Amino acid sequence: MKILVIEDNKDLRELIVKFLESERYVVETANNYSSAYSKIFVYQYDCILLDIMLPDGNGLDLLKEAADKGVRLNVIILSAKDSIEDKVRGLQLGADDYLPKPFHFSELHARINSLIRRVNWAGNSIVNFENVSIDTASHSVVVGKDLLDLSRKEYDILLFLINREGRVVEKQTLAESVWGDFIDQSDNFDFVYAHMKNLRKKLKGAGANIEIKTIYGFGYKLVAA
After folding, report:
1. pLDDT, mean of residues 206-225
2. Domain range for residue 159?
3. Under 8 Å CB-to-CB from 45, ≥6 apart: which residues?
4. Structure pTM?
5. Is the pLDDT of residue 93 over 70?
6. What is the pLDDT of residue 186?
7. Do residue 6 and residue 97 come from a single domain?
8. I want to staple 137 with a disulfide (CB 3.0 to 4.6 A). Which of 39, 125, 128, 202 is the partner?
C-alpha cells in the first residue's frame, strides 16, 4: 500500500513517514503545493494525507483540481485549521475524512486502514480469491488452511494483484505501487522479476489455485488457475 504525505512541516512530515513505514506502508512525500501537484496527477496512491495550509497554495485547491479532472483521490485531510467551513468544503470536494492536528498516530493509522478497507474491500480486512486468503490486518496469507511464508515485497505484490484480479497490470504501475516512485531512476525491472519468480514458486508449492500470468511487453494478470 502506497501513501503520499503532503505536509510542509518537516518535523511532523518525518514523524509521519517513520510511523507509516513501521506499519509497512510505502511512503512518498511532498512539502508544498507544486510538488504535491506533480505527484498526484502522475502516480497512484492508496491514500493521500493532505495538509490544507501549504507555503505556495491551499491543499483544498488540489482536491478541486482533481475533481475538475475527474481524478479519484483517497484523501484524509490533516490540518491545524479546524474550522467547520474547511471540513465541509473538503468533504464536498471529495475528501474522505478529516483529522485535525494534533492527532495520535494510532488514530491516524485506524483512519487510513478504514479508508483503504472501504475503498478496496467494502470495509473488510480479509481478501479472498479462490483458495487464497489475505488478512490485511495481520499481513498474513493462507492457502487452503496453511500459512504461506512471504517476504514483505512478495506480500505487497500479491495484495496489489489480487485487488485487480483478472485485469492486466502494467509493470511500471506495479513497481511504483510496491517500491515507490524512486523506481523512475531504475534502468530495468530485474528487482520485480526476482520477487515475482519467488512469489510464483511459493504459490505453486503451496497448491494455490491462482496464477500470475505474464502479459509479454506489458505486465501481469492474476487469474484462477
Report:
1. 94
2. 126-224
3. 2, 3, 4, 28, 73, 74
4. 0.77
5. yes
6. 61
7. yes
8. 125
Place of cell 475538475: 68
Distances (CA, A) of 122 to 39, 110, 161, 176, 197: 27, 16, 17, 24, 31
Q: Indicate if 59 and 29 belong to the same structural domain.
A: yes
Q: What confidence tens digit (pLDDT) does each residue in 115-156 have? A: 998 887 776 889 999 999 999 989 999 999 999 999 999 999
Which residues partner with 79 through β-bridges?
100
Give 75-89 pLDDT, tens digit per residue: 999 988 767 888 888
Task: Using the predicted structure, report yes or no on whether residue 187 has a pLDDT greater than 70.
Answer: no
**Cα distance between residue 205 and residue 49, in whole Å:** 39
Q: Largest Cα–Cα distance in the chain?
A: 56
